[in-house]
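Researcher: Here's the sequence for the chain we discussed earlier.
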Amino acid sequence: MARLPKRRPRFLTVKTAYHLSPNLIRVTFAGPELEGFPKGHHGANCKLVLPRDGESRAEFEAYFAPDAPKEKIHAVRTYTVRAYREDSQELDIDFVAHGDNGPATRWAQAAKPGSFLGFMGPSQPKLTEFYADWYLLAADLSAMPVVEATLEALPSDAKGLAVFEVPTEEDIRDIAAPAGIELRWLVQPEQHRASMAQVDLVKSLDWPSGTVQTCIAGESSVIRALRDHLHNERQVPKRDTYISGYWKIGLVEDEHQKMKRAEAA
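Model: Thanks. This is the structure I predict for it:
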């Protein structure tokens, strides 16, 4: 069951929605509701509160009034702030087109100018200090926004490797990155089966000397294997690694978050 927001969300309005690639949809929100959005939060997590099918904007906003009955349940999903442009008050969020019937996928595939949802957050950015001699970044489609935002924030002289795993050749696209960051693409068509391609690639690397920082996120079983390799075999200090499971094959988000809390405990 989706968790109810603890406070009234921002109510955001879609300006544009389009496919960046066959399996990735970019939705741009715009409007005065974004007034005061914090700067420098590209790559930070946020919570999206999704309207129910057929619910009008007036009904949706009325639900969050302090004295409104809460008999309805709205789906809440975790996403990433891809970019915010203060001058035009525009916010980009990228959605994976999973090919399933999940509430966020349905909403994003139907989104058009005037569509709406609730926004909570953002949290703090994942990486705010860059001090490494070499950077390792890796993502599947779900984590491309945080890795792309991190690539854009890296120093211009940064060196390292960014690995992207996507379902089709058509999902390979131009990514902005410092000249010293090598980009490698892996194609894994079966998204409902854990792929160890990223793990195998990382294990095969000639490990660089000096300090290594990471920004890695994706499917939980892949992340677990990469975390074990980096911490236990490569001896990369935990303080230098951002590595997070964003989803788990076979689990909806609430089940996955419950699993992550249990593992952390």
